[in-house]
Amino acid sequence: MGTIDGLDIGTFGIYTFDFEHLPAAGLRESIRAVEEQGWGAFWFPEVGGREALSHAGYLLSVTERLPVVNAIAQLAPREPLATYGAARLLADAYPDRHILGLGVGQGLPGVTPLAAMNRYLDDLDRLAREQDDPRPIRRILAAYGPRMLELARDRAAGAHTYHVTVDHTAQAREILGPGTFLGVEHAVLFETDPDRAREIARAHLVPYLTTPYNLAKFHRLGYSEQDTSGGGSDRLVDDLVFWGEPADIADRLRAHVAAGADHVAVQVIGVAPGESAVPRWRRLAEVLLS
Predict the structure, then answer these.
(1) Which terminus of the chain has a lower count of CB atoms within 10 Å, N or C?
(2) What are 16-38's pLDDT values in tens digits?
(3) Has this prediction a pTM greater than 0.70?
(4) In this structure, are residues 137 and 128 in contact, taking their beta carbons and an 8 Å threshold?
(5) Which 8-state DSSP code applies to residue 108?
(6) Which domains does the chain have, with CATH numbers?
(7) CB 59 within 8 A of CB 30
(8) CA distance to 20, 39, 174, 185, 268, per residue, from 163 (Å)
(9) What is the DSSP track for 194-213?
(10) Which superkingdom (predicted)?
């Protein structure tokens, strides 16, 4: 079971970008389905304009027990005081249900990602000392490279990784050590035809195969320039997007747990615009959570 500072969020959860676009009624219906299906946690990013902490507050307000994880709340949109105040309110209003995932995101001009995160954490820790509030703000950091993983180990409850391989999970666990939380996102696709599956997967991976920090991550893992060019080699695509029948996908997701992940946040892709992912989440829950 995945545990963050004493909070058990289970071994598997749901991750989706879809909540950046749904109306409030759709958010309520979908998040309640996640809770009813038995998933351990719900993870969502901050990319489409919805403010991360108020978004988390709404999702917590329409559910009863499901932990909600900001994955991630970016540094640039909020000063540390705003982040701290919002996270403190959520910790008070919804005890043991909110996890603050922080990430550099698009970065801060003139500051390295590591320096930016250290500075932000310094400010959050100073505010916590001034408030002297006993309720914990559980925080994890988006981390890929060794130094950010070390920072997550030393200054947070753990790390959250995104679009990584099972080998990366094993390497991250070695850096984090045995007592630090490691949550891993992984994309999956309900498609059994290899050509069609890879076509959909490549369309999904375009942003990640064209950004320097993602390319650096893949090259550190041993993929060549040829693997990461032209939409990605079959080997890279198959490692980053697990496709096939739900039972086969479930087996491959469990490989992250065997490699050292405490929790895997599953992102189901290949859902047509206007179509709900809820039925696919349910099918996967039947084979993964039983």
Answers:
(1) C
(2) 999 988 999 999 999 999 999 99
(3) yes
(4) yes
(5) B
(6) 12-190+244-289 (3.20.20.30)
(7) no
(8) 19, 20, 18, 6, 13
(9) HHHHHHHHHHHHGGGGSSHH
(10) Bacteria
